[in-house]
Amino acid sequence: MNEELPDLVARFRIRHGIFRKETVEARLYELDSYGCVMKTDKLFEPGDTVVLDLVMDMPFEEIRAEGLTGLVTEKRKHCSNFFYSIDFVELSTQYESPLSDKLRRIREVVLKKQSLKSRRGSSPASGMRQMA
Known about the structure:
By secondary structure, the protein is an alpha+beta fold. It has helices at residues 98-121, 124-131, and strands at 8-16, 20-31, 35-40, 49-57, 62-78, 81-88.
């Protein structure tokens, strides 16, 4: 599995009984325009629907894509957690919506951060710091 995406979390709500709800934050490990992979200890089954808020915490602003409806398509166990593959339901039919624009912006920032991180990791100076 790839490493977690920088500064990006998925938030969703789980109902506990009639009146109590819990907001859960899960780390994302993959993200594209069709879906994502998230890791959490909460239980879902393939075929379940989950409504996600993707939140990217930036120094000067927070980028949010709220209300993404996703369909759980795959479940893999890892220690006490699960990796869930989630396909975005609404975005497959609406390419030019405000929600898809926000998701596109989040993906662009994630790709830039990963590119910067990989460049820093491959420089000779970083190798010297790791040896020290």
